[in-house]
């Protein structure tokens, strides 16, 4: 019996399937040959991973390839430039060109902006001696991101993931900490850090025993008051909290954290309301909440997956109905197959507002559209028509520089712009915000010198600023 068939008769054990099982998946679920071939080629560059729960419970195979969950996990035609796909097809058809194929794959990956938002250059903290600390990022004063090395995969991979570089096996593209020793020392030197976001990949891919090794030492640091766990496991493998052999131990660990008086925030990634419709997902959330943990829900807005106001409203209502807190609707970052998934900011605001309007007050905890960009998290609050023209109303929700948090600013409306670096700031933008947003001294000077810039026009944000 094949692996997939074993899963279908319900062993309930987690197994990941990737390009090697593609033929089996295609045969079982009736994937057309052309779609199968595209998945095979694109998955040479972008990571592809799925499991039986996603295949059986989340994908509507009658709607493939347009089905949102199929788009979410299966690499698609159009994610890579046509000429790259043709190049991959030509080289992979010839067994004598393996080195050439490897080189092309590396070249394409390098062009896909593997570390957006300056993660690699700007966010890596250092020891007292100035050596970089592996597996950590420190972008905002109060929060450190921690990447346990055994948590750098997921139960399935999202095709749009901005962390895709973590999964392609290139050591140079990975963040990973073997243990929390370096983090604990760092926290001793940085008492301002109150929140640790344990992330990946997906930390929930680890056994509970490993998770204990990574989390328990953090409970010895008094200044850490909140542990956040970033995970999509509730959507992709809710069995992790319900029927996995160490699911009960996991809940005991959660209880141990909350019993110390700390907040335990499960930052659950839900992309589509279908992910919350299964009994298993709802049971998982109920069990997590029974430990005292709070489930915050977030996801990027993604073309072809959830760029529909009715779906967004249904998603946030479903999150609220199970006791979760709708939190962020992010804007897709410029990485991986960005052109395939991006939603322009103007449309993102419309979708957000149309969905938000229909929500009960208690579900209006969701914020968006939010760009997690180099200077910080920037929300597009709306669009404003003035005698001067049409503008996006923007606000820094979070910032590297705390003095910028909460401050509004404006940019000229552009129906095609999809990220901060495509916007022109209004000439009245305060100098510190302009400097942070543009990353350009020249632009900041222009903002300071605003009397002379009545019609200076664009304060173009530096390319590659995120
Ligand atoms: S589950 Fe999260 S980290 Fe994993 S591929 Fe999806 S978005 Fe990326």
Automatic annotation (TrEMBL):
<feature type="region of interest" description="Disordered">
    <location>
        <begin position="444"/>
        <end position="466"/>
    </location>
</feature>
<keyword id="KW-0408">Iron</keyword>
<dbReference type="InterPro" id="IPR058240">
    <property type="entry name" value="rSAM_sf"/>
</dbReference>
<dbReference type="GO" id="GO:0046872">
    <property type="term" value="F:metal ion binding"/>
</dbReference>
<protein>
    <recommendedName>
        <fullName>Lysine 2,3-aminomutase</fullName>
    </recommendedName>
</protein>
<keyword id="KW-0949">S-adenosyl-L-methionine</keyword>
<keyword id="KW-0004">4Fe-4S</keyword>
<feature type="region of interest" description="Disordered">
    <location>
        <begin position="112"/>
        <end position="133"/>
    </location>
</feature>
<dbReference type="InterPro" id="IPR007197">
    <property type="entry name" value="rSAM"/>
</dbReference>
<keyword id="KW-0411">Iron-sulfur</keyword>
<dbReference type="InterPro" id="IPR003739">
    <property type="entry name" value="Lys_aminomutase/Glu_NH3_mut"/>
</dbReference>
<dbReference type="InterPro" id="IPR013785">
    <property type="entry name" value="Aldolase_TIM"/>
</dbReference>
<dbReference type="GO" id="GO:0051539">
    <property type="term" value="F:4 iron, 4 sulfur cluster binding"/>
</dbReference>
<keyword id="KW-0479">Metal-binding</keyword>
<keyword id="KW-0663">Pyridoxal phosphate</keyword>
<dbReference type="GO" id="GO:0003824">
    <property type="term" value="F:catalytic activity"/>
</dbReference>
């Amino acid at each position: 019996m094949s692996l997939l068939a074993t899963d279908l008769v319900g062993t309930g054990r987690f197994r990941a399937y990737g390009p090697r099982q593609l033929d089996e998946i295609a045969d079982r679920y009736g994937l057309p040959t052309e779609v199968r071939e595209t998945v095979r080629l694109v998955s040479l560059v972008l990571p592809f991973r799925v499991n039986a729960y996603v295949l059986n419970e989340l994908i509507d195979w009658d709607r493939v390839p347009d089905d949102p969950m199929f788009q979410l996990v299966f690499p698609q035609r159009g994610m890579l430039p046509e000429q790259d796909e043709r190049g991959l097809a030509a080289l992979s058809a010839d067994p004598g060109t393996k080195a050439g194929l490897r080189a092309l794959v590396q070249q394409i990956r390098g062009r896909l902006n593997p570390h957006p938002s300056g993660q690699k250059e700007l966010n890596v903290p250092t020891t007292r001696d100035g050596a970089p600390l592996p597996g950590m990022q420190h972008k905002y004063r109060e929060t450190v991101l921690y990447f346990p090395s055994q948590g750098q995969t997921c139960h399935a991979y999202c095709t749009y993931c901005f962390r895709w570089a973590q999964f392609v096996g290139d050591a140079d593209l990975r963040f990973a900490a073997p243990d929390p020793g370096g983090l604990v020392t760092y926290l001793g030197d940085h008492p301002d850090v109150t929140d640790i976001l344990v992330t990946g990949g997906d930390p929930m891919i680890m056994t509970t025993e490993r998770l204990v090794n990574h989390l328990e030492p953090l409970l010895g640091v008094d200044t850490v008051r909140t542990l956040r766990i970033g995970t999509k496991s509730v959507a992709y493998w809710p069995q992790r909290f319900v029927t996995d052999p160490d699911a009960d131990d996991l809940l005991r660990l959660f209880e141990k954290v909350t019993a110390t008086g700390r907040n335990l925030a499960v930052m659950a990634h839900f992309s589509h309301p279908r992910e919350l419709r299964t009994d298993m997902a709802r049971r998982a959330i109920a069990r997590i909440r029974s430990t005292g943990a709070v489930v915050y829900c977030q996801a990027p807005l993604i073309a072809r997956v959830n760029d529909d106001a009715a779906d967004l409203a249904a998603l946030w209502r479903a999150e609220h109905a199970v006791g979760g807190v709708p939190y962020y609707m992010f804007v897709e970052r410029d990485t991986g197959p960005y052109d395939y998934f991006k939603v322009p900011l103007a449309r993102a605001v419309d979708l957000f507002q149309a969905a938000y309007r229909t929500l009960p007050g208690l579900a209006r905890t969701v914020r968006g559209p939010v760009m997690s960009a180099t200077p910080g998290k920037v929300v597009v609050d709306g669009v404003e028509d003035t005698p001067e023209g049409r503008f996006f109303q923007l606000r820094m929700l979070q910032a590297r520089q705390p003095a910028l948090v909460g401050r509004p600013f404006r940019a000229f409306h552009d129906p095609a712009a999809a990220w901060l670096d495509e916007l022109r700031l209004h000439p009245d933008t305060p100098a510190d915000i302009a400097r942070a947003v543009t990353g350009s001294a020249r632009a900041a000077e222009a903002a300071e010198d605003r009397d002379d810039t009545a019609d200076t026009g664009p304060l173009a944000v530096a390319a590659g600023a995120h």
